[in-house]
Design brief:
With 78 residues, this protein is mostly helical. It has two helices and no strands. It has helices at 3-33, 37-77.
Length: 78
């Protein structure tokens, strides 16, 4: 698999989870305004889960980029 394609995939998945984070926040606020606390708690859990996965994806992408950079530097030395 092409490293450029992998990087684009990591970025896409990272942004997808970021959209989930924003959506979770908006729905929590909406349901709190509508006084539906059960739904607000559900979407708060969704927000927390999306935030954790977003941070994991971001860390994974950065580690992958660092690996590719290191690999590229090793190839230039040879």
């Amino acid at each position: 698999m092409n490293s450029n394609f992998q990087n684009k995939t990591f970025i896409f998945l990272e942004r997808l989870w970021l959209v989930g984070v924003v959506l979770g926040i908006l729905l929590v606020i909406y349901f709190l305004i509508m006084k539906d606390n059960d739904s607000a708690v559900f979407f708060f859990g969704f927000f927390i889960l999306s935030s954790i996965i977003y941070l994991m994806r971001k860390r994974q992408r950065k580690k992958h980029e660092a690996y590719l950079k290191h690999k590229e530097e090793e190839q230039k030395k040879k």
